[in-house]
Structure formats: structure tokens, C-alpha cells
Amino acid sequence: MDQPIYLDYNGTTPHDPEVILVMRPFLETEFGNPSSSHWYGIRPKRAVEAARRQVAGLLGCQPEAVFFTSGGTESNNHAIKGLARSLKEKGRHLITSTVEHPAVLDVCRYLEQEGFETTFVDVDDKGMVRVDDVADAIRPETILISVMHANNEVGTIQPIDEIARIARQKGICMHTDAAQSLGKIDVDVQSMNVDMLSVAGHKLYAPKGIGALYVRKGLLPEKFCHGAGQEMGWRAGTENVMAIVGLGKACEMADCSLDYAGRHLMAMRDRLHTGLADGLTDMRLNGHPEHRLPNTLSLSFKGLEANRILEEIGLEVAASAGAACHSDTVTLSHVLEAMRVPVEWAKGTVRFSTGRMTTADQIDRAVEVVIEAVQRLRKDH
Ligand SMILES: Cc1ncc(COP(=O)(O)O)c(C=O)c1O
User: Fold this and answer.
1) What is the three-class DSSP state of 193?
2) Does the pTM of the predicted model rise above 0.85?
3) From the CA of 200, how far away is ligand 1's center (Å)?
4) CATH, range 17-254
5) CA distances for 202 relative to 73, 182, 246, 259, angstroms
6) Nearest to 213 by CA among 230, 204, 201, 229
7) What is the C-alpha to C-alpha distance for residues 276 and 106, in angstroms, rounded to an integer?
8) What is the pLDDT of residue 326?
9) Long-range contacts: 42-51, Cβ < 8 Å, 24+?
10) Record: fold of 5-12+258-380
11) Residue 193, by phi and psi: left (phi above 0), alpha (psi -120 to 50) or beta?
12) Is 101 left (phi over 0), alpha (psi -120 to 50) or beta?
């Protein structure tokens, strides 16, 4: 049986063949510890530093400002907990948005135990944070603003540079979770004006379990992991050299092909959207119509349940749900809830996300499969 068409690139991406190629020696022969001063350590050490330069190249920063982590979740934890704890004498107020990934929301909630308070700024019906709302939430004791660059569920791109400008004027640290935007749209820490930025390798054709955190020079978040002196003394633990090398290559590739990749992702996404819109009624788009990731298509099918749609299409198309229905209760995603998507629409929400490997033939088949499934379910209803 053929594998289902993969339209869940926001969930994770396949490894790029070129990424696999550069990682392979570190699985097979280059086993040395980068901290070793003997022959075996030399090439792994150089490979880690080369990867740091590749990541820095994509982010537009100095290599010394890039720290490798185990992924987006860990980077967000470092950034928020580390910064909050290091500045707790200055203030204990944080600002974030209601549509962040749990790797930000839960960290902010956890910090309440340590006496921190967080303002969760609302979004509009397109999932966009209003800059004025962030400005209004600022207090004398605010030390950190963390707003994601682009949303994983609906793709809305936030006005990070404007928020960061306000943060800088007020002397407040600005963090952004760029797990979903990196490799899809331009991410440049200088023009975005951010102090910290989180990267997740597996959204970018690199392996799972690798990521990075950009920390502006001069900023000193608390050490997250104590031990030996790896990662400039900031995150102890022998490096995952193979995955770091993979992340470096993935960033280099993203840097070289950003324009083309963006156009391809968008062409595939829009082909899917147009095809479905031509064949179905009672379907609506979630997220911002323009300020949205080029690959993300969150669609609500009125009156249906997302899990039933995914079951119907599951043998041919892999996508993800925006709501989970269990017998008589429906758990909507916090993002759709924050956007106030009416329940009869929200519970039938499916997120399709295209990627580098998506083809027009795949999209055309996916259109047929989804239309047939939705029509069948509506008839049965
Ligand atoms: C916006 C966002 N932040 C953080 C993460 C977590 O990244 P990781 O899976 O590398 O821990 C994800 C993953 O889905 C994400 O979409």
C-alpha cells in the first residue's frame, strides 16, 4: 500500500537527503567527543563550530550567540526561565500571548510558583496580537515579553519587530519562538530586534531532538544545565554532534533556498485551498489571510468533527486536527478558542501544512480525497 500523502509539515518534517548525508559520518566513524583534545575530538569539534556558523548565518547573528539545545521546547524553557530567574530582582512580570505553544504557556504558568506573574495578551479573530495590547500590558516590573513569530496551528505571523521595538525602548527583554517560521519566511534577529529566539530542528528537515537558542551578546540568562563547560559553559553535556551537524546543514540549505521554498510552499498550499473551496461549501479559513506562513492551511468544515475527517482521509492523506472530540465533549485547541472561532466551525478544524517535498500531483489527489470524505460525512450526518 502507498503511504498517505504527507501534509503535516508543521508537525514535523522528513530529513532532507543532504542532511542525512552530512550526518552519516558522525553515526558511522566520527564518534569522537568534541571536548577531547586528541585526534578523535578534532573533527567533531570543528563540525560543531561549523554548524554554529551555519545556524548563525541563517539567523543573521554571530556564531557565539547560538547555543545548541534539544529542540524548541528546551530553547523556550531556557529563554523564559533562565531570563526570568536572572532578572527576578528587577521585576517579576512577564508578557506573552494566548496562542503560544505549550512550551511557552506552561513555562510562564510554572513560574507563578516562583512568584512571577504573566499577562496573557489576547489575539484578534485572525490570531494576531495587537501591538497596543502588549504596550498596555507593560508595567514597571515587566522583564520579559515572549511572543511567537508564527503560530503552529493557523500560521499567523506576529508583528514581532514592532513589539520588539517597544520592548527595547522600555528596556524589556524580547524573546520569540521561531520554531515554525525558520526556513519558511525570513528570520533575522537584527531586523526583528529580538534578544532571544528559539529554533526547532525537526520543523526544518533536520532531526528531532535538536534545536538552538539565540541569545543576544551581553544578556545573561541563568544557566539551565550545570556540569562541564560545553556550549560556552551555559548548557553542560556532551554535544549531540550528529544532530548538530544536521541542523547546521538544514539551516544552510534554508538560507540558500528561502525564496524558492517560500514560493513552492505557498503554491502548493493555495492549490489545495482553491481546489477544496471549488468543491465544498461551508468551509472557512482560520488565521490571517495574508500575514500567514506560506505553507499553513487551517480549514474548518462546519458541523463536522475533525477526528472523523482525519479517520476518513487517513489512509490517503496525513494532516492534523484542531479539535479533539470524545463522545459528547469537544476539546478545542487553545488557539481556535483564543481566536473565538465558533464551536460548530472549530470542532471541524483540520490543519494541512505543505513542505519542500510536496508535489502538485499529491495536492490534486488530496483535494479529491478530502472533498469526497467531507461530502460523505455530511450525507451521513
Ligand atoms: C511554535 C512551536 N514552538 C515549540 C515547539 C516545540 O519544539 P520541539 O518539538 O522541538 O520541542 C513546536 C513544535 O510543535 C512549535 O510548533
Assistant:
1) coil
2) yes
3) 6
4) 3.40.640.10
5) 12, 11, 10, 20
6) 201
7) 36
8) 62
9) 44/239, 44/241, 47/241, 47/244, 47/245, 47/248, 48/239, 48/241, 48/244, 48/245, 50/245, 50/248, 51/244, 51/245, 51/247, 51/248, 51/249, 51/251
10) Aspartate Aminotransferase, domain 1 (3.90.1150)
11) left
12) beta
The fraction of the chain above a pLDDT of 70, given in percent, is: 98
Residue entry with cell 508564527? 150
Verify whether ligand 1 is closer than 6 Å to residue 353 (CB atom): no
Strands 5-6 and 323-326: unpaired
- Can you give the C-alpha Rg of the chain in angstroms? 21
pLDDT bracket for residue 2 (50, 70, 90): confident
325 is catalytic: yes
Q: Cell numbers 524558492 label which residue?
A: 260
Helix axes 241-279, 17-28, angle to 10 degrees: 160
**Ligand 1 geometric centre to CA of 31 (Å):** 28
Where do the domains of the chain lie?
A: 5-12+258-380, 17-254
Give the N- to C-terminal CA distance of the chain in Å, as an integer: 30
pLDDT, average across residues 326-353: 90
Mutate to test the pocket of ligand 1, among 180, 182, 204 (most ligand atoms within 8 A of CB): 180
- Compute, in angstroms, the gap from residue 106 CA to the centroid of ligand 1: 13
